[in-house]
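Hey, weird one. I pasted the Group-specific protein sequence into the form twice and got a warning about non-standard characters only the second time. First submission, copied straight from the form history:
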Amino acid sequence: MTFLMPFSYNQSEKKSITEKLEQNSFTYFRLNETEKHKNTKAYGEHIKVEVQELEQYFFPYVEHKLFPASITERGFHRFTKVVNENFQFEIHESIQTFIVRSIDVILAPFGIAFLSLRTELEQDKELSDILEFAQHFRAVESRLDENKGSKVIVSTNSKKLSVHDFIFKHLCPYLKPVILQDKKLKGYFGSLPYIEDERMFVTSFLLTEVDATIEQEHLFRIGNLNGKTPEGQPFISSTNPAYIKQSLSDTLHDRWAPELYMLTTDHAFSTISNRSSDELTIELSHYMGTHYYNLLLHYYYKIMLLRMSFEYSEIEWKKDEYYVKSLIKLITLFSSWYYFLQISTRTEGKELAALFRKSFNLDCLYNEVSGTLQQLYKSQENSRADRVNTLLFILTIFTVISGIYGMNLVISDWEAPSGWKKYTTYTVFEWISLITAVTGIGLSGYLIFNTFGRMFIQKIRSLKRTIDVE
């Protein structure tokens, strides 16, 4: 299983984050150096990811973003650390042994990052036990009663830690200061207040007994991570066969049925096979390689689209002109640089991409963001038009009055040192000239002060409320 946890970081600190990761035994992942990972057991026993597969799976314009040659280039920057340590996971009174094979930290564009934990469970476990492990381990912060009661036991010192402490105090203590927090929200997921499910995304490659029958109920439970009831019995979140069949029609990829199935839901992507592991070397390589990046890209799309909808809802229209401009830039750059409808050259890759797009509801989210962009442009145009109209109105008044006076608003009395004392003897036209001149000077000063004042205030607000844009 691989547990994928998104979080936000400050892009201006990318260099220092990179140095911190390298100091903690992470290596930068380059496509032409994947041979280094073959013998490290980063993916598990006898599992290898071939360079040729990754190169030929994606279109070139996608490949360059997924596998940048250096940290200075735009794209997804992956750092990998091999762990290969045994731990125990206690759920109520049962204990399961698992291995953390490796850790990925992926610094994605626009201040989004992913922590990826590759784990492996011991063999000969019941399906309910495996799903129970996934359901509890993915809950970084156990807020619901159904997720409480689980602890990770560290073998070296027998300490019992929550999943949150296991990740941020034992495995990756250096990541905690990196994660940006929303001031209004507490806990880890204050980092991404627009994520609708406050738990990690789970991917899994499950092997049954050889030639075992894989039923629709099994697939439904795997896709929904249905483990056990509080009484310890197998749990399924639906008892209606028609509903189960309809749900699987939207989430299941059964091209190689009945020997292998793939399915994706809002919170899990799973591959299930009843063939022996010796016959699945290619499939395991795809799961760790091409499928991993295919999922990662579409999961990133989902997070970014949710983020932009959230940013739009946070706008204070009377104050956030700079913020609106930043959001327009964010949507435009994301759409042009990273959001691709076609990412894979392979038929299988296209089919999985379509499945991810459907399960993550990307088309609907993108249409909403496109509508947001149009509203932002319209708002900017209206605001700009209002300012121009106001300025033209003021200039027109002064131009008309100045034209009446032949562009000369000077009163002869003003030339004398005591001219201002004779204002009581001014005629109506001289009063109009006086008011126009004084108002014009005052208005000019106001416009200058207001322009620089707005620039200063926007700068202050941009420091307090900024959208991380490359």
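That's the output from the first submission. The warning seems to come from a hidden character in my clipboard, not from the data itself. The chain has one domain: 2-359.
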